[in-house]
Task: structure prediction
Amino acid sequence: MKYDFDHIVDRRGSGCVKYDDRSAFGNADIIPLWIADMDFEAPDFICDAIARRAAHRVFGYGMRSESYYRAIMSWVKRRNGWDIDGNWLDFTPGVVAGFVFALRALSAPGDGIVIMPPVYPPFAAQIKANDRRVVENPLVPEAGNYRIDFDDLDRKLEQATVLLLCNPHNPTGRVFTTQELTRIAALCRKHGVHIVSDEIHSDLVFAPGRHTHIGALCTEGQKCITLIAPTKTFNIAGLSTSTAITPDPAARQALRTELGRYHVEQGNVFGTAALIAAYNDGEEWLDQMLEYVHANMEFALRFFRERLPQIEAHIPEGTYLLWLDLRGLGMEHEELLRFMAHEAGVGLNDGSAFGPQGRGFMRMNMATSRALIEQALRQIETAWKARETERAQER
Result:
């Protein structure tokens, strides 16, 4: 079946953060290419599964059947080659909530938690909110990409109890190799550091790349909690349904104790139905969506090369996010934010929110129609040309 990703859905008035809360930009008319959800409709097989469940008309307490666990196990095996056991799986109400529970399960107040900035803002925010210490192992920019500083990681793990990993990495789009992940796991074993891995983007990897779950590389007895979800993959984040995969029995029991303490393991009947449908029937839709988003990125990079060479970007290995290096525009970071929101009318994520390493950068969501991407790029170009004209006149 051929899916139509050019179809434009008017999301205004639907109560979505991306379109209905633009207060952060001070401009209600921006094109919103910021928060990481897609503008694509969820595919029919998911909507039909939700509709069938809704048609029952009774929405009492639900349970997760064997089909739920089989769907997750089969998906992880088919897509990424990891054989997992259904006993390793726990529901979490979102990946951020999941890594907060995992951090609380595997560390104590005051403990150091290593992160690799520039990284998804809730990493540092939730570590601090839960009375842990942020320990930074910054990624190193290199030839348009980023690499792990393993020497620094070795040192920083001495100060920590947990490594909070983001793979595929948001916002840089790195998909860490098996070799890199094996080395990370070995360093964590050396220092007795546990691993919590946010892998919500693990399905969003461009060919010929393939995601490797770090949990598959950890040795017996190593405490590693891996968090996945169909929510980014199939644009169903509002259903708040995610999964923790914990092979180690001690780590698994610690996580379940923490989940039970807050009584959040119930889930919701629509999220359960959607997950089963997504993981059983979603591969064709996902492959076509990735192809479309990749073409969006190629279009944007071609536009920058030909019309705005001051902006530098590279197609990521994974995620549907472009990490834009805007330093070539010659503006201070705060001026960049004003320029994009008020002169270009385009809403992008503030790079400094991902850490000080993100100053001069912004994140652009490419999971939308080609027409909207083109409109946004043309508005940026028009605003930049207007600035250039004004500067020329001032001279």
The mean pLDDT is 96. DSSP finds 13 helices and 14 strands in the chain. The first strand starts at residue 31 and ends at 32. Residues 211 and 344 are 36 Å apart (CA to CA).
